[in-house]
Specification:
- With 255 residues, the chain is of the alpha/beta class.
- Helices cover 40% and strands 22% of the residues.
- The protein has helices at residues 35-50, 79-90, 130-140, 147-151, 165-177, 182-204, 220-230, 243-252; strands at residues 2-8, 12-19, 22-30, 59-64, 75-76, 96-100, 105-110, 116-122, 210-213, 234-236.
- β6 (96-100) and β7 (105-110) form a beta hairpin.
- It is globular.
- InterPro entries: ATPase_BadF, ATPase_NBD, CoA_E_activase_dom, Dehydratase_Activator_Redct.
- Its cofactor is [4Fe-4S] cluster.
- Residues 4-251 form the ATPase BadF/BadG/BcrA/BcrD type domain.
- Keywords: Iron, Iron-sulfur, Metal-binding.
């Protein structure tokens, strides 16, 4: 059975195709101001990557903020359920999922079959999410994808007292002005984000193994900070940014 999942997030729209138990192809595009268009774009992209046409797809499932805005979908499912199912598909041993996306973060405790046992979501503030990291990277004059590597070179940690996006950016600029090394600032930002995420995880209840999904999971500095503060391994799959889309496609397998 060939199924396709689309996850429409605030910053990026992701798609994935499953053929039974295998990931055939995936794609990521910027969401922009028209999430219906971004869904159509990633849909066409992932079909081309897989060498399929729309007629080859048995079921299309959408998730994320814009899931209801895709007219060609067969089913719409919440992102909480899709991230749980996606992580279960990729690593069935995981019992707690931390997902940090563009503008929200989620802590999800899952059962043996990938069912949601408990969850908590922070969608009131973008601090500690992908958009926040993008702003910090711009303030430091580095690329977003470079943050994790620079973190690894830090020999000290700058204290970041505010997690408000506006105030934290001001604080970072002030640290730069007094000559604080960039790696130290980045490590301090990552530890602040990790501390915030851990509070969310503890509210849900952490059951090991712990897995991380979302685009921020590609940042090795965040993963390292979480592991150091929790004193436990954080599992990251080969497809962290498209876990929700994979989960949507996986749900389609049983539709």
């Amino acid at each position: 059975m060939i199924t396709l999942g689309i996850d429409i997030g605030s910053l990026s729209t992701k798609s994935a195709i499953l053929n039974d138990n295998s990931v055939v192809a995936y794609d990521v595009v910027y969401t922009g101001g028209d999430n219906r268009q971004s869904a159509e774009t990633t849909f066409n992209n992932v079909l081309a990557k897989a060498g399929f046409t729309k007629k080859d797809i048995d079921v299309i499932v959408t998730t994320g903020y814009g899931r209801e805005n895709v007219p060609f979908a067969d089913k719409h499912v919440s992102e909480i359920t899709c991230h749980a199912k996606g992580m279960h598909f990729l690593n069935p041993s995981i019992r707690t999922v931390l997902d940090i996306g563009g503008q929200d973060s989620k802590a999800i405790q899952i059962g043996e079959k990938g069912n949601v046992v408990n969850f908590m979501m922070n969608d009131k503030c973008a601090a500690g999410c992908g958009r926040f990291l993008d702003i910090i990277a711009r303030a430091l004059g580095v690329k977003l994808e470079e943050l994790g590597g620079i973190h690894q070179t830090a020999t000290s940690t700058a204290r970041i007292s505010s997690m408000c996006t506006v105030f934290a950016e001001t604080e970072v600029v002030s640290l730069v002005a007094v000559g604080t090394p960039t790696p130290s600032i980045i490590k301090g930002v990552h530890e602040s984000i990790a501390t915030r995420a851990i509070a969310l995880l503890k509210a849900v209840g952490i059951k090991e193994p712990l897995g991380m999904s979302g685009g921020v999971a590609k940042n090795i500095g965040i993963v390292s900070a979480l592991q150091d503060l929790l004193n436990m391994k954080v599992e990251v799959t080969d497809y962290p940014q498209v876990t929700g889309a994979i989960g949507a496609a996986y749900i389609g397998q049983s539709a």
